[in-house]
Design a protein that fits this description.
By secondary structure, the protein is of the alpha/beta class. 24% of the residues lie in helices and 21% in strands.
C-alpha cells in the first residue's frame, strides 16, 4: 500500500540539499498519506523555458522530452529514491495499469515552480 511519512520527506529534502547546493531551492512535502511532491522553486538553470506562468509538471516517465534539462530531472529522481532508501522506505513500483493493479511504495510528483509561486532563475553563488 502506498504510504509516506515525514521521515521520508525529511530524508529526501536532505539528499536534495547534498546533491543540489545553493542557489537551488526545493519544496518537499507529502500530500495526504501516499504522495511525495517535490517542487523546484529556484536554481541557476533556465527551467522557466518549459514553464507556463512559471509552473510546469514534470512527467518522470518521459524525461527525454525535456532535452538538455533531462540530466537535472534525472538527478532529482535519484535524490528522491536515495532519500527514501535512507529513511527505510525504499521506492518500488510493481504497478500494472493494464490490469488496474497499483502497488508502489508511494506516489511522487515533480514540479517546476508552484501554483502562485513561479520558478525563479538565480545566479550561481561565487565564493
Amino acid at each position: 500500500m502506498a504510504f509516506v511519512d515525514a521521515k521520508v520527506t525529511k530524508e529526501i529534502r536532505n539528499v536534495l540539499k547534498e546533491k543540489f547546493p545553493k542557489p537551488w531551492k526545493f519544496s518537499v512535502t507529502k500530500r495526504h498519506y501516499s504522495e511525495v511532491v517535490v517542487r523546484i522553486m529556484e536554481g541557476p538553470e533556465d527551467l522557466g523555458r518549459i514553464c507556463v506562468n512559471g509552473y510546469a509538471q514534470i512527467n518522470r516517465f518521459h524525461l527525454d522530452q525535456y532535452g538538455s534539462l533531462r540530466p537535472i530531472f534525472e538527478k532529482v529522481l535519484e535524490a528522491i529514491f536515495e532519500g527514501a532508501e535512507r529513511a527505510g522506505r525504499p521506492y518500488y513500483d510493481n504497478s500494472d495499469p493494464m490490469t488496474d493493479y497499483f502497488d508502489t511504495a508511494f506516489y511522487l510528483s515533480i514540479h517546476v515552480g508552484g501554483w502562485g509561486k513561479p520558478y525563479r532563475q538565480v545566479r550561481k553563488v561565487v565564493a
